[in-house]
Amino acid sequence: MTSVLQQLRTETAHQHEALESTMPFAALMTDRFSVSVYQDVLLTLRSFHGAIHHATQQVPTHPVSTMLDACAVCEALDTDLLMLDAISAPAFVNDQTITSQSTDIIACGYVWLGSSMGAKMIHRWLQNNAPASLPTHYYQTLSGCSQHWAAYRRYVDTLTLSVQEGEKICRSANALFSGLRNTASKVTAVMQPA
Ligand code: HEM
């Protein structure tokens, strides 16, 4: 039987690819990188992490909620955005409400902790290529979350989930990725009016 983690990876791979090719994410680790791109990345991610933080606060003892270091990640984002004089982040543009049901929280954990893998790479790139004055508290803090990836995977592997629950988790994870792209286009449209 395919595990939910395998299913998540397979069913969201196209979304990850699409996100990596969407501005402002597409300019990370390239010569198109700029402070303005960085600001847009952080604004988009502030609304993503904020929306999940809100949902996990309803179920603080859920094993996945405890793995996200949500307060620290949101605080690190706020610190960076303040240092960049950024405008406040928009609301997360999600087609599907993030509820505190376990299926949604598991999906949130996957996208949040999965993003900490890419964060390690991006943090290293910023250290080597961005001006030393650029605030990187967020990427540093999120990279630290990657230590929970193995525990998250173990936890999900211990669950006995029905086919319907597996599908619900994948739908919710896909909605989060689409929400990130919707939010990114809102952020970049605000920053670059026609
Ligand atoms: C341009 C920015 C990004 C890059 C370059 C990137 C890169 C990566 C890389 C290299 C991995 C694989 C890590 C490994 O297997 O060791 C990964 C995994 C992942 N990333 Fe990203 N990422 C980016 C943005 C994001 C964002 C913004 C999210 C969501 C908020 C995200 C969600 C995920 C997920 C869920 C996985 C886990 C896939 C799995 O193994 O099942 N990524 N990313």
Considering the chains and any ligands shown, give keywords for the structure.
7 helices, mainly alpha, 194 residues, Heme Oxygenase, Chain A, binds protoporphyrin IX containing FE, 67% helix
Topology summary:
Blueprint (H helix, E strand, L loop, with lengths): L3 H17 L14 H23 L12 H14 L18 H28 L7 H9 L3 H10 L4 H29 L3
Helix pairs in contact: 1-7, 2-3, 2-7, 3-5, 4-5, 4-7
The site of protoporphyrin IX containing FE has 15 residues, from α1 and α4.
What is the SS-derived class? mainly alpha
CATH homology superfamily: Heme oxygenase-like
Number of helices: 7
Strand element count: 0
Number of domain modules: 1
Short description:
This protein is mainly α and about 190 residues long. The chain is built from seven helices and no strands. The chain has a single domain (about 5-10, about 35-190), classed as Heme oxygenase-like (Heme Oxygenase, Chain A, Up-down Bundle).
Q: Any overview of this molecule?
A:
This protein is an all-alpha fold. It has a single domain, classed as Heme oxygenase-like (Heme Oxygenase, Chain A, Up-down Bundle), CATH 1.20.910. The protein is built from 7 helices and no strands. It has helices at residues 4-20, 35-57, 70-83, 102-129, 137-145, 149-158, 163-191. It starts with a helix and ends with a helix. The relative contact order is 0.20. Residues 9, 16, 19-20, 25, 28, 48, 110-111, 114-115, 117-118, 121, 180 line the site of protoporphyrin IX containing FE. Protoporphyrin IX containing FE (HEM) is lined by residues 9, 16, 19-20, 25, 28, 48, 110-111, 114-115, 117-118, 121, 180.
